């Protein structure tokens, strides 16, 4: 049975604390590079048919150790990309948060859709598209992507509403959320955290 593993990218170097979203040139940290190698170690004993990654730099860098360990080409796919947000490039937490400014409040008018970025249904549609294409692969498939797309798939397979509190997401950096199809239904089969281990072990 094919297992589809959704890997969240490693820790990102973001000293200014902005919402970097789809902005270019955001690399992973030294600890993130170490954690990405830990993810590669996790897959080294498994049979993997294909490796996909979002086109953003942080996901490409996170996928590289897996590519090297398994001798697989990284297949870049836009369906795995970070959802767009109108708050991209802005600080969205703390006393300087853009969310505190009345000039942006109109973007918060509909949290169910949500009105500040890509609709949850759009995220789910593109993620299910690439996952369904992979389900008949000979062996496992690895997809390096981002927190929100992974969590949206998680909520979908539980038949829960896609609207949620971001603080409730169980999807740390360099984590692996695994899914499989059972009787044509997508089911979560496992969750492993590999992230921030290197930082804590220093």
TrEMBL record:
GO cellular component, one term: cytoplasm
InterPro entries: His_Pase_superF_clade-1, His_PPase_superfam, PGM_Phosphatase
Pfam families registered for this protein in UniProt: His_Phos_1
SMART domains: PGAM
GO terms of molecular function: phosphatase activity
PANTHER family documented for this protein: BROAD-SPECIFICITY PHOSPHATASE YOR283W-RELATED, PHOSPHOGLYCERATE MUTASE
Name of protein: Phosphoglycerate mutase
């Amino acid at each position: 049975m094919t297992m589809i593993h959704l890997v969240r990218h490693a820790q990102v170097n973001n000293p200014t604390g902005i919402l970097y979203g789809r902005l270019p040139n955001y690399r992973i940290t030294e600890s993130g590079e170490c954690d990405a190698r830990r993810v590669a170690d996790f897959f080294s004993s498994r049979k993997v048919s294909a490796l996909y990654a979002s086109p953003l730099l942080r996901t490409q860098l996170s996928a590289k150790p897996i590519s090297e360990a398994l001798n697989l080409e990284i297949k870049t796919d836009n369906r795995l990309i970070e959802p767009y947000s109108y708050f991209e490039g802005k600080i969205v937490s703390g006393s300087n948060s853009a969310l505190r400014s009345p000039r942006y409040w109109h973007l918060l008018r509909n949290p169910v859709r949500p009105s500040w970025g890509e609709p949850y249904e759009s995220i789910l549609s593109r993620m299910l598209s690439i996952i369904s294409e992979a389900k008949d692969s000979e062996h496992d498939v690895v997809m390096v992507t981002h927190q929100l797309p992974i969590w949206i798939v998680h909520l979908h397979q539980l038949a829960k509403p896609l609207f949620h509190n971001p603080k409730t997401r169980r999807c740390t950096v360099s984590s692996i959320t695994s899914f499989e199809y059972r009787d044509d239904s997508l089911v979560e089969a496992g969750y492993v955290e590999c992230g921030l281990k290197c930082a804590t072990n220093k």
